């Protein structure tokens, strides 16, 4: 009887178990094995005593353990693949249903999609991927169109002989950059100095310092492209300060190659005091003309809250001469403060240096801050002022008229 049981176990393990592992037949296997064991027992010995019966429960446990070991090896591996395939089928169904689904999705994006906690989150994630894919396609289409237009322009230029007959020489951007660098290098030797005071970091927030550095970058670019540029000095600029970190963030490796002077010294230690003029909107003295022998100082400060008197107080402590731009003399001032951005100041000073014309220089003042130039007839200025009072000011009309009379007493 024991030899029959051993033989039956070998037959089941060699033939039935691989068949069950291949086709997933777990539940129907044990009734078949029970029938086989009972039939063998009846054929060999029909008069089996009850004490010699086969323990089917123990045999079932042995069979289950063998099945779990063999089937787990074949089933556990493709579980992840089957889930990814099911997710892809779900995406195809949603695409056929007309939902916003991307055309191409990677395995990482698919796993992120499967990890979304809810159906609405999955929809939002797929919509985000779909919109990003549309933006990429649009950018690629624009780049292709731009490339085609450039190739067409090159073909047209090659077909015509205008370039051979033209006496003007085409200058590339690299050649222009070399010319600009040469001018900046000459300004460091022969140019008029222009100082930016970098000692206002404590009076500003991080956002205001960032805006200041952006305006200084624009100022340096404008100065480098000028016909007769200034020799720019960044004074009171400490290493590893917030100003310094923002400059490195903008310029990166080019920061050490700029043709400007950067120092942590004060301008009073570099230049004589009698040549320094601090430009501030709070100064009581109005600037009449541009002096090529003086050294002008501009405070590197952008204040959203308009802190009045900060730069004027600093100039007084250092015993320096101050001056303000004659905005009220040449412009019919309307609204807002008389503070200008640093790049606007650079444009105005460069224009004054080249032309000495206040009208051309003050054209860089934003148009929203003034109504026009004062050299117009008084009647036209009065009409403009009345129209502004009627449309915008309302009850403040008398106050503005009085202010206009104070600013222009002779006219």
Automatic annotation (TrEMBL):
This is tRNA methyltransferase 10 homolog C. It is found in: Mitochondrion. GO terms for cellular component: mitochondrion; nucleoplasm. Residues 141-153 have a biased composition (Basic and acidic residues). It catalyses: guanosine(9) in tRNA + S-adenosyl-L-methionine = N(1)-methylguanosine(9) in tRNA + S-adenosyl-L-homocysteine + H(+); an adenosine in mRNA + S-adenosyl-L-methionine = an N(1)-methyladenosine in mRNA + S-adenosyl-L-homocysteine + H(+); adenosine(9) in tRNA + S-adenosyl-L-methionine = N(1)-methyladenosine(9) in tRNA + S-adenosyl-L-homocysteine + H(+). Its EC number is 2.1.1.218, 2.1.1.221. One of its GO terms (biological process) is methylation.
């Amino acid at each position: 009887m024991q030899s029959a049981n051993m033989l039956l176990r070998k037959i089941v393990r060699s033939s039935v178990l691989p068949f069950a592992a291949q086709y997933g037949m777990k539940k129907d296997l044990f009734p078949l094995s029970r029938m086989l064991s009972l039939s063998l027992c009846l054929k060999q010995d029909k008069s089996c005593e009850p004490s010699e019966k086969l323990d089917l429960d123990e045999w079932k446990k042995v069979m289950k353990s063998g099945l779990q070991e063999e089937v787990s090896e074949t089933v556990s591996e493709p579980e992840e693949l089957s889930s990814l395939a099911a997710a892809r089928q779900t995406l195809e169904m949603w695409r056929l249903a007309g939902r916003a689904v991307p055309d191409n999705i990677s395995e990482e994006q698919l796993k992120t999609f499967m990890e979304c906690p809810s159906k609405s989150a999955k929809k939002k994630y797929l919509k985000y991927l779909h919109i990003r894919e549309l933006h990429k396609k649009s950018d690629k289409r624009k780049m292709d169109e731009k490339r085609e237009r450039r190739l067409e322009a090159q073909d047209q230029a090659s077909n015509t002989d205008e370039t051979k007959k033209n006496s003007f020489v085409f200058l590339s951007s690299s050649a222009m950059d070399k010319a600009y660098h040469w001018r900046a290098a000459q300004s460091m030797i022969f140019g008029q100095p222009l100082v930016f005071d970098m000692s206002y970091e404590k009076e500003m927030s991080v956002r205001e310092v960032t805006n200041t550095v952006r305006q200084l970058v624009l100022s340096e670019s404008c100065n480098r492209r000028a016909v007769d540029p200034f020799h720019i000095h960044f004074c009171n600029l400490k290493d590893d300060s917030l100003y310094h970190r923002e400059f490195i963030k903008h310029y990166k490796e080019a920061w050490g190659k700029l043709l400007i002077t950067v120092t942590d010294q004060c301008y009073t230690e570099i230049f004589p005091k009698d040549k320094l003029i601090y430009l501030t909107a709070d100064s009581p003295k109005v600037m009449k003309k541009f002096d090529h022998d003086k050294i002008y100082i501009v405070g590197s400060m952008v204040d959203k809250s308009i802190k009045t008197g900060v730069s004027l107080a600093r100039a007084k402590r250092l015993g320096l001469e101050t001056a303000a731009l004659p905005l009220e003399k040449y412009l019919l001032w309307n609204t807002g403060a008389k503070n200008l951005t640093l790049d606007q100041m650079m444009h105005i000073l460069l224009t004054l240096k080249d032309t000495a014309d206040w009208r051309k220089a003050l054209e860089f003042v934003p148009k929203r801050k003034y109504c026009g130039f004062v050299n117009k007839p008084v009647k036209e200025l009065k009409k403009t002022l009345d129209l502004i009072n009627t449309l915008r000011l309302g009850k403040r009309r008398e106050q503005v008229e009085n202010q206009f009379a104070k600013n222009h007493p002779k006219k």
